[in-house]
């Protein structure tokens, strides 16, 4: 947890956004794994944690936007709680950690909300994304849980996004701490991924590094020789010499900030000429994107720049034909790069997307594309100084996609399907870093993680 003043300042800045009424932040509760008392690892709601700091279940925060008073709602531990969970600070002590001098029993939250509404005051809240929160919000607002989302506050969402998307120095330091461990995890994967080893053995080695710090994953690890399956959470293949292994793994720091890193490397330790050729295209796509980033540049345009570079380079190898711009604008390029270039990252790996993807990643004169591929780009709007975004171009040979498009002749003036079929067993490549937008450009966060062909081969040999 940061110093109490950090949370007080964040709440003051939120209050300065000019909303009126109550701003209600309901924290997460424990979620059962398979029965009530057997729980999944606790993950706090990030907006609650951003403004109130506390990383425990069963809390809510209310900011009176008119008076500026903020109150923590929760319960003091009773003896039974202490028997099962050990000594806990009082509610008032926990409130003080977040810079609050007001706390109240959780049982009084519903009447506080009801009194505000009875007085004709607005109660602003963010869109809930968990079933438990929907039910609790339905109770607090006296509406059916299915209707809770209809009433979320767009102005509060905009105000929260405006604050959370600009990272402070203390947040960047947390993200770099997460990246230091993530680096060790990726290097460990490179060293353990020998021919004959099962994917889950490599995953166990990697995740152990994070668990030894009592940290959690930021998202389920993607580690597979079948890297063309974009969110491949299966780890049950045996690695074979000549495979490309794709490793998309990140962790959440003790302070609650995520990393999201992808590296792709050759099982056996040496890229084949064919792998090296395509790997270097993806690397250049990433480096060109990072170079193009600066405040005011739309991430949609950075995505297209990266895609165009891929098309130009793949055209010289015979995969595409025609004008590179047309191939990008038509969406034909997505046969090889069917996802977005990246997304914001912070407390959430896809930062704030629970608040509404388009409210976070679009607007500001930028609309989401309906095209297959580009439509998955979650961040299109102009970059701002202080944003942290992932830059994660990829190139994949997805047999089902190639055959589906070939069968309907989709974009056949641009795509050489015969050439794509020659690579149907190739797999996929993705290279992902977490990048801070600076005043004049960008900076890759964290200590460097082996990325060039030479660096990766050296790390695997080491
Ligand atoms: N790790 C998921 C992603 O890169 O978005
Ligand atoms: Mn990733
Ligand atoms: Mn990502």
| Count of individual domains | 2
Low-confidence stretches are none
List bound small molecules. Answer: glycine, manganese (II) ion
Strand order of the largest sheet: 6-5-4-1-7
In total, how many beta strands? 17
Distance between the termini: 37 Å
Would you state the CATH class of the largest domain?
A: Alpha Beta
What is the fold named in CATH at topology level of the largest domain?
Creatine Amidinohydrolase
The coarse overall form would be: globular
Radius of gyration, in Å, reads 24 Å
> What is the helix content?
25-40%
Q: Given the structure, what is the number of helices?
A: 17
Can you say what the CATH homologous superfamily of the largest domain is? Creatinase/methionine aminopeptidase superfamily
Strand content: 5-15%
Mean pLDDT comes to 97
Main β-sheet description: 5 strands, mixed
């Amino acid at each position: 947890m940061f110093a109490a003043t950090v949370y007080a300042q964040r709440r003051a800045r939120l209050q300065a956004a000019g909303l009126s009424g109550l701003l209600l932040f309901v924290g997460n509760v424990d979620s059962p794994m398979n029965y009530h008392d057997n729980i999944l690892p606790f993950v706090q709601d990030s907006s609650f944690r951003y403004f109130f700091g506390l990383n425990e279940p069963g809390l809510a925060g209310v900011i009176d936007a008119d008076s500026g008073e903020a109150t923590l709602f929760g319960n003091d531990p009773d003896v039974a709680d202490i028997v099962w969970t050990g000594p806990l600070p009082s509610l008032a002590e926990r409130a003080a950690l977040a810079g609050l001098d007001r706390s109240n029993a959780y049982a009084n939250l519903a009447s506080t909300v009801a009194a505000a509404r009875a007085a004709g005051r607005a109660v602003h809240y963010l869109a809930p994304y968990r079933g438990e929160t929907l039910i609790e919000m339905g109770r607090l607002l006296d509406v059916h849980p299915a209707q809770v989302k209809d009433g979320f506050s767009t102005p509060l969402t905009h105000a929260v996004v405006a604050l959370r998307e600009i990272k402070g120095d203390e947040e960047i330091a947390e993200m770099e701490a997460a990246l230091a461990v993530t680096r060790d995890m990726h290097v460990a994967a490179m060293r353990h991924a020998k021919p004959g080893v099962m994917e889950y053995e490599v995953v166990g080695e990697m995740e152990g590094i994070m668990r030894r710090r009592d940290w959690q994953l930021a998202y389920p690890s993607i580690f597979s020789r079948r890297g063309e399956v974009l969110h491949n959470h299966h780890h049950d293949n045996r690695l074979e010499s000549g495979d490309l292994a794709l490793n998309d793994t990140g962790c959440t720091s003790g302070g609650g900030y995520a990393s999201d890193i992808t590296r792709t490397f050759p099982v056996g330790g040496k890229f084949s000429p064919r792998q090296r050729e395509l790997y270097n295209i993806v690397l250049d796509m990433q480096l060109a994107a990072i170079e193009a980033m600066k405040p005011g540049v739309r991430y949609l345009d950075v995505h297209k720049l990266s895609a165009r570079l891929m098309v130009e380079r793949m055209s010289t190898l015979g995969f595409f034909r025609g004008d590179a711009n047309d191939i990008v604008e038509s969406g034909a390029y997505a046969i090889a790069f069917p996802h977005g270039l990246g997304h914001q990252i912070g407390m959430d790996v896809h930062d704030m997307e629970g608040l509404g993807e388009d409210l976070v990643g679009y607007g500001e004169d930028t609309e989401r594309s309906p095209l297959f591929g580009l439509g998955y780009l979650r961040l299109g709007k102009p970059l701002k100084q202080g944003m942290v975004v992932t830059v994660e171009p990829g190139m994949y040979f997805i047999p089902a996609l190639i055959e589906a498009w070939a069968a309907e002749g989709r974009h056949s003036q641009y795509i050489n399907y015969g050439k794509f079929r020659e690579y149907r067993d190739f797999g996929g490549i993705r290279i992902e870093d977490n990048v801070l937008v600076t005043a004049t450009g960008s900076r890759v966060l964290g200590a460097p993680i082996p990325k060039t062909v030479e660096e990766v081969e050296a790390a695997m040999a080491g």
